[in-house]
Design a protein that fits this description.
The chain has a single domain, classed as Hypothetical protein af1432. It is built from 8 helices and no strands. The longest helix is centred in the C-terminal third of the chain and has 18 residues. By secondary structure, the protein is mainly α.
Length: 173
């Protein structure tokens, strides 16, 4: 594939030295969470930035680094919604190999820490409150008590990209 920065990347044969943070930030800032089915555009880049900032507020830089890049593979394979992933034969393996290349490139743990997985689940509630009709929480069995506690204000893609990159520079000096 051709990346936003004009580089070639092979999603079926990913290599850590070919992973580029500018490509990741650009692609994620143009990808809408929830397959774009939100009242306002909300990017994967902003989602990742919000999670990283939440960990930074807790003074947990290692988890903030993990949170910022937890969806970075989606820059190369797309943001497939959770309900579909189990039905896409072979997709999990491809995504896993790209994730491994990203994690190697940025010196992250081999496996995403449980704290980031839990925060990723809890931020759904914050996002549902901001991005979907009021009854969406109840229809999907979510409770406001499970919130991460982030007030989501959707950003334009260029602003989301800039904030993602600023957070990256802060966490990966």
């Amino acid at each position: 594939m051709l990346t936003a920065g004009g580089r070639q990347f092979w999603p079926l044969d990913p290599r850590a030295d070919e992973v580029d943070i500018d490509d990741i930030a650009t692609a994620l800032s143009h990808q809408g969470r929830y397959n774009g089915h939100t009242r306002h555009f909300y990017s994967v880049a902003q989602h990742s930035h919000e999670m990283a900032r939440w960990f930074m507020a807790k003074r947990d830089a290692p988890m903030a680094r993990e949170a910022l890049l937890h969806d970075a593979a989606e820059a190369y394979v797309g943001d497939v919604i959770r309900p579909l992933k189990p039905f896409l034969s072979g997709f999990a393996g491809i995504e896993h190999r790209v994730e491994a290349a990203v994690r190697q490139r940025f010196g992250l743990a081999e496996i995403l820490p449980e704290a980031v997985k839990q925060a990723d689940t809890r931020i759904l509630t914050d996002e549902f409150i901001a991005l979907f009709p009021a009854d969406a929480l109840a229809r999907f069995g979510l409770s406001a008590r499970s919130r991460l506690g982030i007030e989501i204000r959707p950003l334009f893609p260029t602003i989301a990209r800039d904030r993602f990159m600023a957070t990256f520079r802060e966490l990966f000096p």
